[in-house]
Write a structure and sequence with these properties.
A hairpin with a 2-residue loop joins strand 2 (about 45-50) and strand 3 (about 50-60). About 40% of the residues are buried. Helix 4 runs antiparallel to helix 10. This protein has helices at about 60-65, 70-95, 130-140, 145-165, 220-225, 230-255, 255-265, 285-300, 310-320, 345-365, and strands at about 25-30, 45-50, 50-60, 100-110, 120-125, 165, 175-180, 185-190, 200. The chain has two domains: about 10-125, 2-Layer Sandwich (Phosphorylase Kinase, domain 1), CATH 3.30.200.20; about 130-365, Orthogonal Bundle (Transferase(Phosphotransferase), domain 1). The protein has a five-stranded antiparallel β-sheet with strand order 1-2-3-5-4, covered by helices on one side. By secondary structure, it is α+β, with helices and mostly antiparallel strands. It is built from ten helices and nine strands.
């Protein structure tokens, strides 16, 4: 027996206007943000149910049939989809307030038939307004207080994830979403999305074996040289800390920390063919990388900061982007090797600075 898909387009691309059994109507097909890498096997839709709005990630199985090993590809696809669904549900059960909420999951037939290849998996989750990349592109760089509040929200998301044994591994502007909280006063917060490439402590995942599960352009320096620390905190949580530091620089400058650092590494120390051939933890390489990071922070970040609190923001940046992953994070939290990176401590410091920056900005406005 053979099954033939009748649609001229993939089933996941053919759901516009359809109402799911849960009552969500798919009203708009979404175009991925520039630079987005997560969910490359899914199609996004905006869905409505009355006044409520959701994001639906649609996945079908037709591409797997034409793979060299269809059974293996179907298994991979199912494993990735189920893994993301389970992670989202887990985060919602633990009330992770800065992670996009899980609403549910169901299957739908794109053409109304019983053809199994017309079935589409629909993952339903909280919807946001715009991602951080689009916000910055549309509005330009913002105030110090706003930047620090965004960073505080993302830091809280990472603290919540780390507390649940989850490392995100793909923190970048397109994975930070603006959400309007409508309970009481309308309040805008930022939440972290795209949990399809996370790594979970004690749980096997589909991307555990990859050298780097997320977008390589945002990876920390140890991964540029193929080094994976043996300790969880150093390998996973410290990588998230570095990406939070990268986001800090992006918010204040619109620039990528990784690209700026890479551009000033001398050729003999660059990763890849023709470059560094030694180990990552050798003193010569660590010194070069540390100097490059210090130069980028001093030349690009420092001039963009509010002078009254510039030193305190720089101190946080230095902790977050320390080249040695075993030393990256809050210094008090990392007094012993292998201890947690202390994202919760850093988030509290960022949140306090956001309040101070807001007070400074209000004072200037009244002069």
């Amino acid at each position: 027996m053979s099954f033939v898909v009748q649609q001229t387009t993939a089933p996941k691309d053919s759901l516009l206007g359809m109402t799911l059994s849960s009552g969500w109507t798919l009203v708009e097909k979404l175009v991925p943000s520039t630079g987005s890498t997560g969910g490359n096997f899914g199609v996004g839709y905006k869905a409505t149910k009355g006044a409520a709005i959701a994001f639906v990630k649609a996945i079908d199985f037709t591409a797997a049939i034409s793979a060299v090993d269809p059974i293996q590809e179907l298994g991979n696809l199912a494993a990735e989809a189920n893994f993301e669904k389970d992670v989202l549900a887990y985060c919602s059960e633990r009330n992770m307030s800065r992670v996009m909420r899980y609403f549910g999951h169901e299957y739908v037939s794109a053409d109304g038939s019983s053809n199994p290849l017309s079935r589409v998996s629909c993952l339903i989750m909280e919807a946001g307004e715009r991602d951080l990349r689009r916000l910055v592109h549309a509005n330009g760089l913002s105030s110090c207080a706003w930047n620090l509040q965004v960073l505080s929200d993302v830091g809280m998301a990472l603290s919540q994830l780390h507390g649940g044994g989850i490392a995100h591994q793909d923190i970048k502007p397109s994975n930070v979403i603006e959400v309007i909280q409508k309970e009481g006063k309308n309040q805008r917060t930022m939440k972290v999305t795209d949990l399809g490439r996370v790594v979970r402590k004690g749980t096997t995942g589909p991307f555990d074996g990859k050298q780097w599960p997320g977008d390589s352009r945002y990876s920390p320096p140890e991964r540029w040289y193929g080094y994976v620390p043996p300790n969880w905190s150093d390998a996973r949580d410290a990588a998230d800390a570095y990406m939070l530091g990268s986001l800090l620089l992006y918010l204040f400058t619109g620039l990528s920390l990784q690209s700026l650092v890479f551009s000033i590494i001398p050729d003999p120390f660059k990763p890849g063919p023709g470059g560094w051939t030694g180990r990552f933890d050798e003193d010569d390489l660590l010194a070069v990388l540390s100097d490059a990071h210090a130069k980028v922070l001093n030349d690009s970040l420092l001039p963009s900061l509010t002078p009254e609190i510039a030193d305190r923001i720089m101190a946080i940046a230095v902790e977050l982007v320390a080249v040695d992953p075993a030393k990256r994070g809050d210094k008090r939290a990392r007094r012993q090797h292998g201890q947690p990176v202390g994202i919760d401590r850093i988030q509290q410091k960022i949140n306090n600075l956001a309040k101070i920056a807001a007070a400074i900005e209000r004072g200037r406005a009244t002069r």
